[in-house]
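Weekly sync, protein design subgroup
Attendees: M.S., D.O., the rotation student, P.L. (late)

Item 1: inverse folding check
M.S. brought a backbone from last month's batch and wanted to see whether the design step gives back something sensible before we order anything. D.O. pointed out we never logged the input encoding, so this time it goes straight into the notes. Structure tokens as presented (356 positions):
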């Protein structure tokens, strides 16, 4: 029987597993803080390494101090600070430069940092003999037109002269290194290819589409949509994602495997904007922004991005449980409460994309 059942019984089933001590890089980030919360809820404790470059201390401020420790440092510094006596049951490597905008602004930093950090974390997992989950991305599929995307599919990238693809290459390199670590050293590495993950605590600062839309809708400002808005994406609530990651990592059979993680219900970006306005009762209008005005000339977007979730479902029984409407409401509540609504009137390039 899988450890995870897609019903109300899931929390009970997971709680039966022994409490874990987990290391989360990027643990003060969006997905990382929800993952920490989920592991703590099942009795575990967390050490998080985060340099707070895109994350925020407040994301984890509600977590109990005796079970959540934040090391404010880069991945390399944080691992060095931990020392040889530390022991972990599992590692989640989520720290990364995230978002299309960040990649366009600082590609070298993103590429070099990605590979260096993945290698350092894999070496630590080998040393501590514990399983490690690496966060990859649907970007790895590039501009493949064969949907839904399956883990073993061929991928198609744009040329290296287009900076936009560097994130895909970088995440792909991380995957190679992790899989090789598994083959050569027996490291229990698992790759999670995240598709659009959304929910409370997600910052819109680096071009993430849903927080941008929700923020604009709350302010009554236009929701800016790239191109004709017909590009399609699948969204999954971060709480569903956070809940399934430990289940995936703790299965010994997951080691050396690549798994799509996300929702598989398609929605166009234009429909998403309409949905946000409808759910929040916003009078904002939707404004179409040509790609060439939003990004550098020649920017390529991906028409349809949809995961095939067969492998994840078979391994874990995963089914998303939180509706998109609920996610929109919860994200809006969080923005109202925290005052975290980003400036919707910022540069157009950051306002409308299918970022991540
Ligand atoms: N959110 C999504 O839809 C999505 C989609 C695909 C992939 N991912 C991947 O999931 C992971 C988590 O993303 P997220 O959405 O939570 O973003 P996030 O920006 O909220 O989280 C990343 C965290 O890592 C930290 N960080 C960045 N570089 C660091 C470094 N060198 N040392 C220490 N800490 C560092 C940041 O401060 C941040 O807290 C990333 O690897 C990202 O590529 C996310």
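Designed sequence read out in the meeting:
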């Amino acid at each position: 029987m899988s450890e995870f059942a897609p019903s109300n019984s899931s929390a009970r089933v997971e709680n039966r597993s022994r409490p874990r001590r987990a290391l989360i890089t990027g643990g003060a980030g969006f997905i990382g803080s929800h993952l920490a919360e989920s592991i703590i809820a099942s009795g575990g404790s967390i050490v998080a390494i985060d340099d707070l470059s895109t994350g925020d201390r407040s994301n984890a401020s509600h977590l109990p101090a005796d079970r959540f420790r934040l090391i404010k440092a880069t991945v390399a510094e944080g691992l060095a600070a931990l020392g040889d006596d530390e022991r972990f049951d599992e590692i989640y490597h989520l720290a990364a430069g995230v978002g299309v905008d960040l990649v366009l602004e600082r590609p070298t930093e993103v590429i070099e940092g990605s590979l260096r950090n993945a290698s350092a974390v894999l070496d630590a997992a080998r040393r501590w003999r514990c399983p490690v989950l690496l966060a990859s991305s649907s970007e790895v599929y590039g501009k493949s037109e064969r949907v839904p995307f399956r883990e073993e599919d061929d991928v198609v990238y744009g040329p290296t002269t287009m900076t936009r693809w560097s994130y895909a290459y970088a995440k792909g390199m991380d995957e190679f290194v992790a899989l090789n670590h598994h083959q050569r050293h027996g490291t229990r590495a698992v790759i999670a290819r995240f598709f659009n993950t959304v929910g409370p605590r997600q910052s819109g600062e680096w071009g993430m589409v849903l927080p941008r839309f929700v923020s604009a809708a709350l302010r009554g400002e236009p929701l800016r949509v790239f191109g004709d808005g017909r590009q399609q994406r699948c969204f999954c609530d971060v709480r569903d994602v956070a809940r399934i990651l430990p289940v995936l990592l703790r299965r010994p059979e997951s080691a050396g495997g690549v798994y799509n993680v996300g929702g598989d219900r398609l929605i166009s970006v234009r429909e998403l904007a309409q949905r946000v306005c409808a759910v929040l009762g916003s009078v904002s209008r939707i404004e179409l922004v040509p790609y060439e005005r939003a990004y550098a000339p020649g920017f390529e977007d991906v028409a349809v991005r949809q995961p095939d979730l067969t492998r994840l479902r078979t391994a874990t029984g995963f089914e998303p449980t939180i509706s998109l409407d609920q996610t929109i409401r919860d994200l809006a509540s969080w923005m109202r409460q925290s005052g975290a609504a980003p400036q919707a009137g910022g540069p157009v390039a950051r306002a409308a994309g299918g970022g991540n």
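Discussion: The radius of gyration is 19 Å. The chain has a mean pLDDT of 89.
Action: P.L. to compare against the previous round before Friday.
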